[in-house]
């Protein structure tokens, strides 16, 4: 037999565990979002550098073939 006090203590413990799990999940999601944003930004920089290099190479080629 479970007393009313024991029941409420158990219920509070379950709520505390659920809250802790929810908070941990939220923190993990925030961390993953930050990592994803960093990866996207880094990929954008790399792509921009490659396009700049390609543009420079094409300009040189264009100058050589204008004769």
Explain how this protein is built:
- This protein has 67 residues and is mostly helical.
- 93% of the residues lie in helices and 0% in strands.
- It is built from 1 helix and no strands.
- It is rod-shaped, with a radius of gyration of 29 Å.
- The N and C termini lie far apart (99 Å).
- The model has no long low-confidence stretch (mean pLDDT 96).
> What does the oligomeric state look like here?
single chain
* Strand residues, percent: under 5%
Indicate the percent of residues in helices: over 70%
Taking the alpha carbons of the first and last residues, their distance comes to 99 Å
Low-confidence stretches: none
Q: Outline the biggest β-sheet.
A: none
SSE series: H
The total of helices stands at: 1
Write down the overall mean pLDDT: 96
* Number of strand segments: 0
- Shape descriptor reads rod-shaped
Radius of gyration: 29 Å
Structural class: mainly alpha
Q: Which helices and strands appear, and what pairs or packs with what?
A:
Layout: H1 4-65
Key traits:
single chain, 67 residues, mainly alpha
Concise account of the structure shown:
The chain is mainly alpha-helical and 67 residues long. The protein has one helix at 4-65.
């Amino acid at each position: 037999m479970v007393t009313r006090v024991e029941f409420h203590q158990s219920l509070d413990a379950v709520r505390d565990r659920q809250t802790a799990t929810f908070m941990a999940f939220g923190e993990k999601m925030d961390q993953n979002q930050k990592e994803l944003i960093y990866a996207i930004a880094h990929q954008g920089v790399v792509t921009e550098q490659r396009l700049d290099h390609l543009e420079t190479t094409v300009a040189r080629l264009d100058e050589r073939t204008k004769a």
